[in-house]
């Protein structure tokens, strides 16, 4: 890990970003039906499809926490590929055969800040996160009905 230059030893610090996210499913999911491995596998697949195997490897994604009770998690990724990682989360469409959508609630540079963000969301002081289940289900119904009905119907839904 360390190297020396002119007698001084130094280490390269691997910069990381922590992403706190939630997964919205199109229907109620049984407790423990979707595990952290399933979510991580879907994220890896989206990274590999959109950024290639090299991009997926360079992102160095690791699941730090996953809650099956409320479908939220914390993932660590390389800071250099943060934008690519966040973009690939948009393309996750199913997890373990169930239609799903990942929504980023917070990104930051330390795991302690991720814990504080999770506490704010759980306490309800962060209005963006969790507690809008009806809205999420409505969005899923709108998107899937729009996709089944074709682009014309989808444009009518967007205009409304």
Automatic annotation (TrEMBL):
<dbReference type="GO" id="GO:0005730">
    <property type="term" value="C:nucleolus"/>
</dbReference>
<dbReference type="InterPro" id="IPR002759">
    <property type="entry name" value="Pop5/Rpp14/Rnp2-like"/>
</dbReference>
<comment type="similarity">
    <text>Belongs to the eukaryotic/archaeal RNase P protein component 2 family.</text>
</comment>
<dbReference type="Pfam" id="PF01900">
    <property type="entry name" value="RNase_P_Rpp14"/>
</dbReference>
<keyword id="KW-0819">tRNA processing</keyword>
<dbReference type="InterPro" id="IPR038085">
    <property type="entry name" value="Rnp2-like_sf"/>
</dbReference>
<dbReference type="GO" id="GO:0033204">
    <property type="term" value="F:ribonuclease P RNA binding"/>
</dbReference>
<dbReference type="GO" id="GO:0030681">
    <property type="term" value="C:multimeric ribonuclease P complex"/>
</dbReference>
<protein>
    <submittedName>
        <fullName>Uncharacterized protein</fullName>
    </submittedName>
</protein>
<dbReference type="GO" id="GO:0001682">
    <property type="term" value="P:tRNA 5'-leader removal"/>
</dbReference>
């Amino acid at each position: 890990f360390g190297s020396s230059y002119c007698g001084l030893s130094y280490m390269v610090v691997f910069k990381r970003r922590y992403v706190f996210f939630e997964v919205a499913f199109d229907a109620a999911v049984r407790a423990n039906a979707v595990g952290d491995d399933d979510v991580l596998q879907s994220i890896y697949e989206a990274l590999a499809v959109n950024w290639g195997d090299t991009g997926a490897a360079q992102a160095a994604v690791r699941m730090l926490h996953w809650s099956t009770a409320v479908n939220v998690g914390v993932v660590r990724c390389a800071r250099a590929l943060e934008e690519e990682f966040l973009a690939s989360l948009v393309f996750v469409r199913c997890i373990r055969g169930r239609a799903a959508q990942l929504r980023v609630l917070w990104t930051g540079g330390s795991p302690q800040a991720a814990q504080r963000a999770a506490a704010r969301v759980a306490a309800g002081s962060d209005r963006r996160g969790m507690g809008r289940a009806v809205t999420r289900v409505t969005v899923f119904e709108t998107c899937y009905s729009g996709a089944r009905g074709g682009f014309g119907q989808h444009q009518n839904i967007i205009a409304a």
